[in-house]
Amino acid sequence: MKVIVSAVLAAAMAGGVQAAPFEPSELETARELRALALESNLGYEITADLTTRIGNRLAGTENDARAVEWAVAKLESLGFDRVWTEPATFPTWTREHERVAITSPVEQELVALAIGFSPGTPEGGVDGEIVMLDDLAALKAAPAEDIKGRIVFIRERMERARDGSGYGPTRAARSQGSMVAAEKDALALIIRSVGTSTNRFAHTGAMRFDAGSRRIPTAAVSNPDADQLERLIELGDPVRVNVDIGAQVSEPYTSQNVIAEITGGERPEQIVALGAHLDSWDVGTGAIDDGAGVGIVTAAAKLIMENAERPERSIRVILFAAEELGLWGGRAWAEAHKDNIENYQLAAESDFGAGPVYEISARVSDEAWPIIEAIHAELEMLGIAMGGRTQARGGPDFMPMSIHGLAAADLSQDGTNYFDYHHTENDTLDKIDPAEMAQNVAAYAVLAWLAAQSPVDFGSGPELIEDD
Amino acid sequence: MKVIVSAVLAAAMAGGVQAAPFEPSELETARELRALALESNLGYEITADLTTRIGNRLAGTENDARAVEWAVAKLESLGFDRVWTEPATFPTWTREHERVAITSPVEQELVALAIGFSPGTPEGGVDGEIVMLDDLAALKAAPAEDIKGRIVFIRERMERARDGSGYGPTRAARSQGSMVAAEKDALALIIRSVGTSTNRFAHTGAMRFDAGSRRIPTAAVSNPDADQLERLIELGDPVRVNVDIGAQVSEPYTSQNVIAEITGGERPEQIVALGAHLDSWDVGTGAIDDGAGVGIVTAAAKLIMENAERPERSIRVILFAAEELGLWGGRAWAEAHKDNIENYQLAAESDFGAGPVYEISARVSDEAWPIIEAIHAELEMLGIAMGGRTQARGGPDFMPMSIHGLAAADLSQDGTNYFDYHHTENDTLDKIDPAEMAQNVAAYAVLAWLAAQSPVDFGSGPELIEDD
Q: Which of A58, A266, B76, B99 is surrounded by the most beta carbons within 10 Å?
């Protein structure tokens, strides 16, 4: 993460600590919320309820609609002042089947998942010789005659890191590889899963989907299967595989962002927004991605509702639709509210599992920075360090609005193990540690409460610089 | 494990240490073998070659035949004095498909594997309400009217333990549950996997298969899926599932035990037998079960062949057929050689993964016990403790011959994590630590070499008391 330091900022930082922006009673409440959250199991229970009753909930499916119903009912039952939905429309994709098998020198079935928006193959699949490449750059550089009529295998490995920084570089092959390989007339693309586990799970995820672009059938194989392919190829005989994918891109579907509000007592039009996404991939039960976030932000708001005075600003919980298929809920929300952006004070989304928060960073105005510092002082005993002023996006679903200048805070979670489970069949409730989840709830409750009481407007933050 | 102590034994044990049964040069060789094994990667390379070139090798399949060919060629290339095969005939079972899904209150697909020798269901599966029971005893005790027309779910959890002692009790439901549930007219049986992993893998394995017995379709679900079923059932609404299994029990097939010998220089008719099994389940690549054993015992013999004088007794490596389907290779071998049992001196099989050996125990005659103690003295620096005189079987494939009195040693491996992978798709090469595997090779090399040089005949051990 980049830290931007300027003279103005340094002055603001030095001044912030002395400003004592919050009333003693407000700080007292923040500390109570923090303590209560650490003792509460509510976040975990909400996640357990969602993932047990609904299971996975790919955007555009029946389970997506069930999840929306579940969310409205759950938020209403928790006693929010208002609960409503706002539409988001998006193309959908259906996985029918996938099978990736080595056919020569010996038949071996591989554990694989088609990548979202992959086209299907002809019935029976496509069969071809493997050409193994190091990464997307190698595919871009490869002469078309080496690729044509073959099945490309990109063997790039994702690196494990606390901040998940290994994801971006390896995700490139997943999101762009299909189009690049199509230009060179490959038959199909197989990638090593974008994930860190050595267990035999393939990691799905979406590919970039430009209207009219040519794509080829694309699947990810598990890390052990990628190892096996590499070993077989290194034995020297030509390796042939069959890639058989059944999949459909369907008509646009309209799902809903589900929104619940604690209406502010003094500045109700000003909104502190906590986010998570309600949809998941169609494998696993979407527990860490993003059932955990749903539990965390909902429980944080509920704790405030039950244990604090009515906040000055409104606090909204936004459970976004169709994040996995391309941030469609976040985009619809930005489109609907961007003209009113001055009312959106500060945003933070939980969408990185249930590992403990280790750092807060933010992208806010100079005037509001001391508030973030004062909030950090109340988070420090949770083991949360100050990450400074960064290009904080507030999470993926707030990115479309952050581009318009929405101020945002990132509560960065320890993601060391997140990509062991991310987008796999193995993303299930047991992967969540309730105590770690409670620490997250505590952090979001403190952040939301104090942001709602801030004497300084967050207004708009510096505009987010897109790097994607 | 039971330790039998008697006055005779105590005297023998006390006397053993002073007897100095081995020549200094023999001990020197044992120590060289130990050191060379720890520096060698041969065992791992053999396992990698088998699991990469062949993949899984369910007994009776084409890959089983390929594995037999591979083993003969590999053992011949390693320079054994003799390599041959001996037939083993057994019923085979083919997995065509399985699908276990919750159908009510909400559709959720579970990760499941049919149990070996499960019959198939009618097309489309059987659909019924779940009745959840604690264990096999609860199924036996349940009134038939509570079971009839329902789908039984046994939720018993396997306990993790270094010695794998959690396996036996929970395996009972897998091996006998189908017959018991059939007697009470259940539609199907689902068991919580007999395994310790919280990753979403189902563990297959064989059920007991008595000719003429009625069985019902049976599948194991992964531990996270069993948790999900329990939670859903505890929510109170009736839970219905569909169990759809395609499977065939086929005509008897004849595979081969593959045997390689280092012919003894002085007493060639006397045999020290090292075993492993060549077959595997049809999921994963059979790396820890039992590709590891194949690598360990083959490498141990090869090290002796290359680095020791010709041993006095013959050393045989026996790669058994069809262990997973019911010890068919071991039974055929016992049947073929039991009349000649006095020539079979000592047996030890490696079939518990590649975790380090932590203990040696044995079932040998009183006269031979000091030899085991002297061998243990050379194993101690490998971290191997003395487990004493036990009902050692030498491993599953030697059990049929142990019942006739074959003397046996057990080199017990640390199995703490073995049942995370056992009989799953996730039993792949990356689960093996080459350094731990080398420690196993060292232990088998020392054991086989010194047993072959023993001045005392092992003759027959005390008869194995069957407890199964």
A: A58
Query: Given CB atoms, is A235 within the 8 Å cutoff of chain B?
Result: yes
| Closest residue on chain B to A283 (Cα) | B109
Residue type, B144: A
Query: What one-character DSSP code corresponds to residue B394?
Result: S
Is there a single domain that holds both residue A282 and residue A415? yes
Co-location of B71 and B164 in the same domain: no
Q: What is the pLDDT of residues B407-417, one digit of tens each?
A: 999 999 999 99
Per the CB < 8 A criterion, the answer to whether A215 and A245 are in contact is no
The token pair at A340 is: 């009113």
Q: Does A284 touch chain B (CB under 8 A)?
A: yes
Contact at CB, A201 and B199, closer than 8 angstroms: yes
Q: Does A110 touch chain B (CB under 8 A)?
A: no
- Domain harbouring B402, CATH code: 3.40.630.10
pLDDT at A172 over 90: yes
* Same structural domain, B275 and B352: yes
Nearest Cα neighbor of A245 from A266, A207, A218 is A218
Are A53 and B105 inside 8 Å of each other by CB? yes
Contact A48/B at CB under 8 A:
yes
In a domain, B467, yes or no: no
CB contact under 8 A, A224 and B66: no
Mean pLDDT score of chain B: 94
Q: Which pLDDT tens digit goes with each residue over B77-106?
A: 999 999 999 999 999 999 999 999 999 999
Q: From the CB of residue A47, how many other CB atoms can be counted at a distance below 10 Å?
A: 29
Give the minimum alpha-carbon distance from B15 to chain A in angstroms, rounded to a whole number. Answer: 50
Q: Indicate the SS3 state at residue B347.
A: strand
Do residues A306 and A434 both lie within one domain? yes
Of residues B55, B106, B111, nearest to A54 (C-beta): B106
B 241-260 residues with CB below 8 A of A?
Answer: none
**Closest partner residue to A198 among B105, B200, B430, by Cβ?**
B430
Q: Give the domain CATH number at B242.
A: 3.50.30.30
Q: Do A235 and B52 touch (CB under 8 A)?
A: yes
Taking the CA of residue B305 and the nearest CA in chain A, the distance in Å comes to: 27
Is A1 contained in some domain?
A: no
Residue B88, Cβ neighbours under 10 Å: how many?
A: 25
Residues A199 and A323 in one domain: no
- Is any Cβ of chain B less than 8 angstroms from the Cβ of A231? yes
- CB-CB under 8 Å, B284 with A200: yes
DSSP calls for B83-152:
EEEEEEEEEEEEEEEEEEEEEESS-EEE-EEEPBTPPPPSTT-EEEEEEEESSHHHHHHS-HHHHTTSEE
Cβ separation of A228 and B66 shorter than 8 Å? no
**The pairing of beta strand B126-133 with beta strand B112-114:** unpaired
Verify that A43 and A137 share a domain, yes or no.
no
Q: Which residues of A touch B429 (CB under 8 A)?
A: 224, 227-228, 231
Question: What's the rounded mean pLDDT across residues A387-412?
Answer: 95
Say whether both B175 and B136 belong to one domain: yes
Instruction: Specify the pLDDT at position A429.
Output: 98
Question: Which chain A residues are Cβ-neighbours of B285 within 8 angstroms?
Answer: 108, 228
Range of the domain at A193: 93-250
Is the ipTM value over 0.90, yes or no?
A: yes
Taking only the tens place, the pLDDT of each residue in A236-264 is 999 999 999 999 998 899 999 999 999 99
